[in-house]
Amino acid sequence: MSANGRPMSGAVVNGVDFERWAVVLCKPDAVARGLTNRILEMISDTGVTVSDRMDVVAQPWQPHVVYRDMLADTGHRNLRNLPAYIDAAYANQTVTVALAHGGLGIHAKLRQLIGHTDPTRAVPGTIRGDLGDDSLAVANAENRLIRNLVHTSDDPSSARREYGTWWGPGRRLLESDFDTCSVILCKPDAVERGLVDAVLERIAAAGVTVRLRVDVTVQPWQAHVHYWDLLVDADYFPDRDIPVCLDDAYAGKKVTVALAYGEPGIHARLRQLIGHFDPTRAAAGTIRGDYGNDSLEAALAEGRLVHNLVHTSDDPDATRRDFGTWFGAGRRLLLTSPSGVPLQPTHADR
């Protein structure tokens, strides 16, 4: 901390070394032209790891912070109109941001890769040179910002500032959130039997913080993504038509999802708490053991999936996938780790 109590502007914050991390901003024109995937692929092709991609509807303050040096430059010839140009280009427009991880010198490497500010002056092989379709001359004539697709952090200080701008100040990298976060899925049978509150209360009573409860009407793709392993290994279940079983059990049905926060190891703890997938084999004191009323034997006889009330993510990778499936990949800002947040359900049918 500085003498006035404000954070220092060093390159390392909360364990994030911005000497080796850069922020990639795919601008509104890149999103509008459907070039975001291509841009991130061109960055990845240089050996840089790209992660934590997130779509954001830009609030006016965010591009103001990104362009702070230009806005504060008293010698900038378009200073009078620049705020209006920035607002017109960004406010309430969708951008895509991502993190790029590489070695020392990543910022200069990426700046070289994206190319000159004016795409007409960017050399072939650069992102702006290969994909750009605008020019500074045209932009000046039309009194607007130039459309040049992408921005990357200039240096470690810029990376830190831009990380706080797009992901939230003081945030840890999202990978670490999945180590201490799990998705809870209260299945259709839990909803139909009125057991959602009881299930979430049991999880919260285990010392886990439960928040961001959301009611969802299941689309078929969500069940397919969630149970991808059953679909891929369907030949192991010759007694059931797995695609049909999934659609019958989930499509158009109500489920409730929530996020659970705890210490590393939360995934194993929750899997132990919910109990064996066959409720008749789940121990007393587990959720399925105490509340389950179905059996694998009955499910097999009826050619369906077993009704076992609840799922929690198996591990951090499963949490990432489950979060995107049930909350939406574009809502990662929900993942900010709480501190002592009580169970406060919120409902939003999607």
UniProtKB/TrEMBL annotation:
Residues 179-334 form the Nucleoside diphosphate kinase-like domain. Belongs to the NDK family. GO terms for molecular function: kinase activity. Keywords: Kinase, Nucleotide metabolism, Transferase. Its cofactor is Mg(2+). This is nucleoside-diphosphate kinase. The keyword Transferase applies. It comes from Streptomyces galilaeus. The keyword Kinase applies. Its EC number is 2.7.4.6. The lineage of its organism: Bacteria, Bacillati, Actinomycetota, Actinomycetes, Kitasatosporales.
